[in-house]
Amino acid sequence: MYEVKKGTQSFYIGEAEDQWSATITYVYSGENRITVEHTYVSEALNGQGVGKLLLKALTDWARAENLKITPECSYAKAQMEKNSEYHDLIFEEA
C-alpha cells in the first residue's frame, strides 16, 4: 500500500511535495470550503487504485475539518457523485 502525505494544498504519494508520483490538489474557495482542482497519477501507478486512495485521504481530512468540497476535477467530481459516502461533502449553492 502507498503512503499518502499531506502537502500545503495537496495530498500526494512520493518522496516530497515537489517530487510526487501521484497528487490531488485543492484551493480554499470560501469559508469552510475547498475546490478540488486536479488529480494526477503517473503511468507507473495507473490502475492501482491510487486516485481513489488520494480522494479518500482528502475527503477524510475535509470531513475532520468540517469543509465542503466543490469538485472541479473531472475525476473527483465523478467519484464523489457516484459514491454516496462522499455526498455529504459536496458543496451545494444555496
Automatic annotation (TrEMBL):
This is Uncharacterized protein. InterPro entries: Acyl_CoA_acyltransferase (IPR016181), Gcn5-rel_NAT (IPR045057), GNAT_dom (IPR000182), GNAT_YJDJ (IPR031165). CDD domains: NAT_SF. Residues 1-94, 3-91 form the N-acetyltransferase domain. Pfam families: Acetyltransf_CG. Gene3D superfamilies: 3.40.630.30. GO terms for molecular function: acyltransferase activity, transferring groups other than amino-acyl groups.
